[in-house]
Design goal:
7 strands; 7-stranded antiparallel β-sheet; alpha+beta
């Protein structure tokens, strides 16, 4: 396995504008996101985003990431080197279904030998994390 992926897709009864507003307001993530808090930075290509990651069952950690890709109302992706032979991508995607609804996805991609080992060891905690983020993102956007 070269890349390990874990993702949760969920339907949201809100416009892409509303879903993107929740996602793009980084200082407000503390209000809705259960695993990524203290988020600060700018959404721009190559820009830094700093945060604290607290996934249940794993040690809390501070991270400084770089925006790899983003498209307003559609996608936010950041990348992080987590050490020798370990890289992760964190992504959020929005797909418009009609004017009143969309599909939102969030997930992690892990690459490298240690990335695969981390994924295999922590699959259950990561699954719980992406599920919790999807549910919270949906609740915030539909509010």
């Amino acid at each position: 396995m070269d890349i390990a992926k874990i993702e949760k897709r969920i339907g949201i009864r809100a416009s892409t504008d509303a879903v993107w507003e929740v996602l793009s307001n980084l200082p407000d993530w503390d209000r809705w996101n259960p695993i990524e808090t203290g988020v600060a930075g700018t959404i721009a290509f190559g820009a830094e985003i700093s945060l604290t990651e607290a996934i249940e069952g794993l040690p809390e950690r501070k991270a400084v990431t770089r925006v790899g890709e983003w498209q307003p109302y559609a996608q936010l992706v950041w990348a992080e080197n987590r050490g020798l032979w370990f890289r992760s991508l964190r992504y959020f995607e929005i797909e418009e279904l009609d004017t009143g609804g969309c599909i939102a996805a969030n997930g992690f991609l892990f690459s490298g030998l240690r990335g695969e080992m981390f994924f295999d060891k922590n699959r259950k905690a990561l699954r719980h994390a992406v599920n919790a983020v999807a549910d919270a993102w949906k609740a915030a956007a539909e509010a």
